[in-house]
Design brief:
phosphoprotein phosphatase activity; FCP1_euk; alpha/beta; 14 strands; CCB2; 5-stranded parallel sheet; 4-stranded antiparallel sheet
Length: 422
């Protein structure tokens, strides 16, 4: 065997962008990061779209009843001496138009490059949606598998819409599944334009885009894979699930099955601090705070928090109506702690507040107080002075040397301000 045949490939080809273009792994990583920042600045994400059975259906079939000329969504074309028919999925033109405002669009098909360009022209005759971003099987770096390695955008901002799960091995976290569109094998029965699969997919993608940039605006960082995992129920909350692909099926490739009761039993006593407040009591006394405070120390916190979402994703959603009256969300961190600790604290507490009954979190990080949650702070306290106000309240209740994380349980009629400020 020739050396060239066994040599490990050190570059990634991007022939679909420019003939003969190859980049090293380092170059690709830098490009992905540049593209990510560019997308975020334009408030866009990246959407990778399969062709066959996702956006359209192509079939070789001799059918005298099919008259492509009488339909604006059926195309007849020839290749290799055969006649082919391509039927566009209902709502696909509206889908591409609306999605293009929120996403940079890519096509990724296991069909040939020639086929990909022929049918993409049916979808995008003016080239306004895809441009050169049409990836085919010739561009795959692993035979028979699709991969985001040839998409020059960081995977944290990439969503994939496809009807086939197995071809995305290694990228299930980015995948949204859609029901297979099989027009020619179903006696030409078609989906509804307004209530079909693409209409529903657009609603989900719109909500995902909104949730992503809500998070990004607050913390300047986000990952669609984490959102699809930990906030899936929120993303589909307002969407109907009566179409062919139900909400759970769109994420079946990634979401592990977690028994809610086992999850809550295993982690509830630690994370929800049920040992602080029993079922008959809503208030935490000062002596309980001083003697029974159990949380996660800084060392354990820095290790455990990045994986917190994995443990808590099966927890029941919080009841927003149970927030203490008059409270507002507070998020305070000193500037002198490292960016990595800030990110861990931001993500970990975010998961707690949105996926458990925790209402507020206090923690000492590198000797400095961090606060997240819903509190009844005085109206005359500015953001600049808020951290000092919290430190003063903690000292007054005897926790001047706070070294643990305190989780306060969300409960009806709880006045969080009274918990800390007496």
């Amino acid at each position: 065997m020739a050396i060239e045949e066994i040599r490990v490939k050190k570059t990634i080809p991007f022939d679909y962008l420019q003939k003969g273009l190859e980049m090293s792994f380092d170059q690709v990583e830098r490009l992905k990061d540049i593209q990510l920042r560019g997308l975020q600045s334009r408030r866009k994400l990246c959407l990778v779209l399969d062709l066959d059975h996702t956006l359209l259906h192509t079939n070789f079939r001799q059918n005298p009843n099919i008259n492509a000329a009488s339909h604006d969504d059926i195309f007849e074309w020839k290749a290799m001496g055969k006649v082919y028919f391509t039927k566009l999925r209902p709502f696909v033109r509206n889908f591409l138009e609306e999605a293009s405002h929120m996403f940079t669009l890519y096509v990724y098909t296991m069909g040939s490059r020639n086929y990909a360009h022929i049918v993409t022209d049916f979808l995008d005759p003016q080239g306004v949606y895809f441009g050169k971003r049409v990836i085919s099987r010739e561009d795959c770096t692993t035979p028979g598998q699709k991969g985001l390695d040839v998409v020059p955008v960081d995977p944290s901002a990439v969503v994939v819409l496809d009807d086939t799960e197995p071809v995305w091995k290694g990228y299930f976290a980015n995948l949204l599944l859609i029901e297979k569109y099989d027009y020619f094998s179903q006696m030409e029965l078609d989906e509804s334009e307004e209530e079909g699969e693409l209409s529903y997919a657009l609603e989900v993608l719109t909500k995902l885009h909104s949730v992503y940039f809500d998070w990004y605006d607050n913390f300047m960082d986000c990952d669609v894979r984490e959102l699809l995992d930990t906030r899936w129920e929120e993303i589909i909350d307002d969407q109907g699930v009566g179409m062919g692909t139900c909400a759970s099926e769109m994420r079946c490739g990634k979401r592990e099955r977690v028994d809610d009761q086992i999850l809550i039993s295993a982690f509830g006593s630690l994370l929800l601090l049920n040992h602080f407040v029993d079922s008959d009591s809503y208030y935490i006394t000062h002596s309980q705070l001083r003697t029974e405070a159990l949380g996660i120390s800084l060392a354990a916190f820095s290790v455990f928090v990045p994986f917190l979402g994995k443990f808590l994703k099966g927890a029941s959603q919080v009841d927003q109506a149970s927030l203490p009256d008059g409270s507002e969300q507070v998020f305070l961190m000193p500037q002198n702690i490292s960016n990595s600790i800030k990110e861990d604290f931001a993500w970990g507490t975010y998961i707690l507040l949105h996926n458990t009954n925790t209402v507020s979190v206090l923690i000492s990080v590198q000797g400095a107080l961090c606060v997240r949650g819903y509190w009844n702070t005085p109206e005359n306290i500015s953001k600049r002075n808020a951290l000092g106000w919290f430190e003063k309240q903690i000292k007054q209740i005897g926790l001047s040397n706070l070294k643990d994380t305190l989780y306060f349980r969300r409960a009806q009629d709880t006045d969080v301000h009274q918990t800390v400020h007496v």
